[in-house]
Design goal:
Elements lengths: L1 H13 L8 H7 L2 H21 L2 H21 L4 H11 L4 H8 L1
Helix pairs in contact: 1-4, 3-4
């Protein structure tokens, strides 16, 4: 997971960068809604690659999804460790039971 934590650190540093010098800074400057929209676009591209059985493109798109997820989280000041803690909390719990508990 260190690569994701490293990426999270870079994204956080880009929050204060000049939007003309960094794609991440430009995206963050457009606000959380734009970051969420971009994440959605990348997720759809990953879905299409998966549906087509295109493993190489799916790998590429999955990397984009992870990057844009981290940007979206940063735009809302949510730490990767908070997401990982939630996954750890759910570990060992049936997905059905966990979903029913939220209802």
């Amino acid at each position: 997971m260190s690569v994701l934590h490293d990426l999270e650190t870079v994204i956080a540093a880009r929050k204060s960068a000049d939007p003309e010098s960094s794609w991440t800074a430009k995206l963050l400057a457009k606000g959380p809604e734009k970051c969420a929209e971009k994440f959605g676009e990348e997720a759809i591209e990953a879905i299409i690659a998966a549906a087509k059985g295109d493993a190489e493109n799916l790998t590429y798109e999955a990397a984009d999804v992870l990057y844009h997820l981290l940007v979206m989280l940063a735009a809302r000041d949510i730490a990767l460790d908070d997401v990982l803690a939630e996954l750890a909390r759910r570990q060992g719990t049936s997905g059905i039971a966990e979903k029913n508990a939220r209802s």
